[in-house]
Amino acid sequence: MANENGRPKVVERDEIVRALNVGKSFGTHKVLDGINLTVRSGEVLAIIGPSGSGKSTLLRCLNQLEPQTEGSITLAGITIDARKAATKKQLTDLRRSAGMVFQSFNLFPHLSVLQNISLPQQRVLGRPKAEADIRSRALLERVGLASKADHYPVRCSGGQQQRIAIARALALDPKIMLFDEPTSALDPELGLEVLAVMKELADGGMTMVVVTHEMHFAETVSNRVMIMADGRVLEEGPSQSIMRDPQTERAQRFLQAVKNR
Amino acid sequence: MSAESLLVILSGIPWTLAITAGAFTMGAILGIPLCAMRVSRSWLLRSMAIVIVLILRSVPPIVWLFLLYFGIGSGFFQVGPMQASIVALGLITGANLSEIYRGALKSIHPGQWEASHALNMPRWSVFIDIMVPQLVRVILPSATSYIIGLLKDSAIASTVGVTEIAFQANFISRRHFQGLEVFAVAGLFYILISLPVAAVARYSDGVLRAKVAR
After folding, report:
1. Which of B115, B134, B133 is nearest to A164 (CA)?
2. In CATH, what number is assigned to the domain containing residue B29?
3. Given A95, A108, A155, which is nearest B118 (Cβ)?
4. Which domains does chain A have, with CATH numbers?
5. Is the pLDDT of residue A133 over 60?
6. Does B117 lie at the interface with A, CB-CB under 8 angstroms?
């Protein structure tokens, strides 16, 4: 309807994440400085950059595992401003919309694969166990691990554990998935299984923010790429143009370094 | 040694077991708030916990027992020998277990908390479903050796007249002027009680570990 008088379609409605002037300091050490970021529904954003550039911290600010010390973050309609401590309800509502996958998987070692995926559904969404188990099995099928349901996580390879962790997050029906270097702890072959699942998710229209060192994924699967260094955004834009033709000298240096390995 | 003497010593076993079980239960419960204080964000609570644990652990068990039984027990209100023994050993157990709990908490990978928070699990569920089962696995071996130690420490209750194994052995040895055999039998009883405790712990630890082992 907004198109009728020639104005661009209102994008506000589609926006699922907006970070405004976000900063994060640990004591006197400033890890993030003046970050602005928007993610629209259905979009895949890859955040790349050298280690220590604040990528993971930014991602962890998005679901408030690390509250930012400056600026505001809006995720799925919940706005959290650094000047005011978030209420418990805000945190619950915000985290309900955001699924997170960690570098170190963080599956619960004392629970079977099936319980790992079902327990959060039961406790967070109040789904009955039988219903949760059906959902869990369907998700395990989707990530190619139906046969692992009754195993314990330690009996699974790293790539399998990460796919289980993705299934566990998906089971809570998030609106957006946050990936914190999901393949960094895996050897390249196992990483591929995880990337395949992530590509399938992206193709299925899931909104994703992926902190990664996988340049091929950033270039081919994500819609947009953001390059960070020293707590700031260096460049941000459509994946292909950013990856092939970076404008700043620092970004060129970084991409040279990772591509010529 | 006569059968009658043997029976007298045997009659001490329930008291020994009751002191051990009572003190351990009390300590296991008391250790929880102490540990919570020790890892609290509040500087005051942390310092209080450090001081309490230090005091409880530095004073010998028998001094605590006399303090409770002869000190408080005869002055302010009546404390029976049994209650005094359980409370004295229970206090010390609480201090020691709070440190064992704290070590176990530290051994849990921080990612477990992060994942629980990111999944939005309610606080009670994080504790009951995620943390306690992992903590129990870590605590079990040290708690078992503590129980066996406590079983032997329960002998100090004989000094205030609780008729447990050591008291009865002492009584018989004085009556019949037989030191060696009587105390050897008492020692044997302590060993016989320790064995099943250790066996149960080994078995349950094995079962718990088998599930999560490669």
Report:
1. B115
2. 1.10.3720.10
3. A95
4. 42-54+97-259 (3.40.50.300)
5. yes
6. yes
